[in-house]
Design goal:
634 residues; alpha/beta; Rossmann fold; GMP Synthetase, Chain A, domain 3; 2 domains; 9-stranded mixed β-sheet; 5-stranded parallel β-sheet; 20 helices; globular; binds adenosine monophosphate
Length: 634
């Protein structure tokens, strides 16, 4: 067994030696000339000069040894459809999709926006892009038209791939009207939208730019599209994520570094082996979906299970039955899902045969102790919390069981993963924190392979946002608070910025505020995250109206609150909808006009907001207090 401490130390002291060894996990069409090009910090170019392809490594490379093994098992409890694709099937489908994309003009370096529900074609589309050397940008299917349009304008795609409809909890969501609105709003709308017609939408829109996939797939049924050999540092994808401003950032990732990092994580963190089956219950629109539904299991020659549906339909035993039926070895989801399942009949879990399951991985939001204890007792298997973010692409903190099965510490995702020089720093001085002192979690240069290369189209934003926010140090900021103990275990203490985490989904409070502000009745709004027993956090909106009388009586206030929620649904998507809207006549601000968000959040959680010497008018605090009290006038 390797020792964690030495292993981690080597990865930091001698990253070139460490990652040169790991690079052997993937196929290089042309070997790299340099493990790490550090000539332009904070940018890092891993495996410079090497040429490879993510699709080749995820699919083609396995054809000799596992063509008949399942690569993708698809289960939809929304439509009742279940499909299995061997590596040979996957290869054929990806070639068809790539040929269709190519026939629609997609070339190396072009962007393809993928706005799809959880269907196998989403995986084919992602891998087809990788094959062609096109840059995919998956937009979560729950985002509304204006959000989709903003991403179109940033990515300027050659093609958009979408479907007639998605489905969630038994409800069909028509996609074509959303796509149509986004196409109309966007300045850089692509000429064509490739449509996967699931025949779910009762009334599918017909627009001149829509092209049906199925007939084209037939035309290209026997196509073989060669893999484009990309230099390791060419972009593989852009994935938008929320930050402090209302404008989402396009997290750009490379090809070679990402492939190596994911393949290594499969062994060292997930203990996944070729032939294993992994079920990651997330969405392809999030980074967990990119890394651990699609790429990592396939790079490792495993079977990945893709699931469309909720964890409680048809009943709360569905995921456990999937484990039994598909002999799932590794499962990965967010703590929210476990909190939801905890409320279900425990017999549903006990009656399933879970003998195949080795480990449950949880990430995306803090794992609270009662949930951690409940699920590890119920399963009787290791539960591995892991901490990371869209930007890093793979875990930063975890008990790396494939390195050394260190003991778990409740409330902590564990110790820094190999490759990450993780340092907690004082927010004012930038100096490393003492043990037990709260600080900003930072990463020293260089970030390991697999992490973001830059912000799409905006190197300056990458440097300024991530590398210039800690005083006096050029280090990467995660924008998370943490505290580290004497054994290296880090506990996460929330975000340093205005990002909140609802059910594992990362949302910028600015984005929600902008959506609410677009309603004519609104003068000002503050959105904060507060603790929620199921979703981790919930968004609360405090709204100042242009005409205070508009919410004078409870019925009018309810109606207006519903209208604001509907505005968020339309502008951003239902995931951004605030749990509650409170009307106030003023918001707590500093004398220079800055919103005192932390104070608002503290009051909304019933905590003391602390000393606020710079506050403009302390009466605003009282309004927040009254608004959130159950007997308050909101
Ligand atoms: P995302 O980029 O959407 O994956 O969100 C990343 C953010 O989620 C991190 O910056 C943390 O704030 C939070 N997060 C992710 N994983 C964990 C975890 N295991 N424990 C606590 N917070 C987490």
């Amino acid at each position: 067994m390797r020792r964690y401490r030495e292993f981690h130390r080597e990865s930091i002291d001698r990253p070139e030696d460490f990652w040169r060894r790991e690079a052997a996990r993937i196929h290089w069409q042309t070997p790299f000339t340099e493990v790490l090009d550090r000539s332009n910090p904070p940018f890092a170019r891993w495996f410079a000069g090497g040429r490879t392809n993510l699709c080749f490594n995820a699919v083609d490379r396995h054809l000799d040894t596992r063509a008949q093994q399942n690569a993708l098992v698809y289960v939809s409890t929304e439509t009742g459809i279940e499909r299995r694709y061997t590596y040979a099937d996957l290869h054929a489908e990806v070639n068809r999709m790539a040929a269709v994309m190519r026939s629609l003009g997609v070339q190396r370096g072009d962007r393809v926006l993928i706005y799809l529900p959880m269907i196998p074609e989403a995986v084919f589309a992602v891998l087809a892009c990788a094959r062609l050397g096109a840059i995919h940008s998956v937009v979560f299917g729950g985002f509304a038209a204006p959000s989709l349009a903003a991403r179109i304008d940033d990515a300027k795609p050659t093609l958009l791939v979408s479907a007639d409809a998605g489905a969630r909890g038994g409800k069909v969501i028509d996609y074509t009207p959303l796509v149509d609105e986004a196409m109309a709003r966007a300045e850089h709308a692509p000429p064509r939208v490739l449509l996967i017609d699931r025949q779910l939408a009762p009334e599918r829109l017909n627009a001149p730019y829509l092209i049906d996939y199925e007939p084209l797939r037939e035309q290209h049924y026997n196509a073989h599209v060669p893999c484009e050999w990309l230099e390791s540092n060419e972009p593989s994808y852009v994935l938008y994520t929320s930050g402090t401003t209302g404008k989402p950032k396009g997290v750009q990732r490379d090809v070679g570094g990402y492939a190596v990092a994911l393949a290594a994580s499969m062994e060292y963190i997930f203990e996944g082996r070729a032939g294993d089956t992994m079920f990651t219950a997330s969405d392809i629109g999030w980074v967990v979906g990119h890394s651990y539904i699609i790429y990592a299991p396939l790079l490792a020659g495993m079977t990945t299970v893709m699931y469309e549906g909720t964890p409680v339909r048809p009943d709360g035993g569905i995921w456990w039955r999937l484990v039994e039926q598909h002999r799932i070895n590794l499962m990965f989801t967010a703590p929210t899902a476990i909190r939801v399942l905890k409320k279900q009949d425990p017999a549903l879990l006990r009656s399933a045969d879970l003998s195949s399951l080795r480990t449950l991985f949880l990430a995306g939001e803090p794992l609270d102790e009662p949930t951690a204890v409940w699920i590890s007792d119920a399963l009787g298997k290791p539960v591995v919390d892991n901490y990371w973010q869209t930007e890093t692409g793979w875990p930063m903190l975890a008990i790396q069981r494939g390195v050394e099965a260190l003991p778990q510490k409740v409330g902590s995702p564990g110790v820094p993963c190999y490759g990450y020089d993780l340092v907690l720093r004082n927010e004012h001085t930038g100096e490393p924190c003492a043990q037990g002192e709260k600080g900003v979690i930072t990463l020293s240069y260089p970030l390991p392979p697999g992490c973001m290369q830059t912000v799409w189209g905006d190197d300056a934003r990458f440097v300024k946002t991530y590398w210039e926010s800690v005083p006096g140090q050029q280090v990467y900021s995660t924008f998370d608070w943490g505290v580290q103990d004497e054994n290296g275990y880090v506990t996460i203490l929330g975000r340093t910025d205005d990002v909140i985490n609802v059910a594992g989904h990362r949302l910028g409070t600015r984005e929600i505020e902008e959506a609410i502000s677009s309603h004519a009745a609104v003068a000002e709004v503050a959105v904060v995250g507060v603790n929620d027993t199921v979703k981790g956090q919930a968004a609360l909106a405090f709204v100042v109206l242009r005409d205070a009388g508009a919410a004078a009586d409870p019925a009018a206030a309810d109606k207006l609150a519903a209208a604001l929620a509907a505005t968020v649904d339309r502008q951003l998507g239902a995931i951004g909808r605030p749990a509650r809207v409170h009307f106030v006549s003023m918001l707590p601000k500093t004398r220079s006009g800055k919103l005192l968000r932390r104070a608002i959040a503290a009051l909304a959680e019933g905590r003391d907001p602390g000393d606020l010497p710079t506050i403009e008018d302390a009466a605003a605090l009282q309004q927040i207090r009254e608004a959130v009290e159950p007997t308050g006038k909101a």
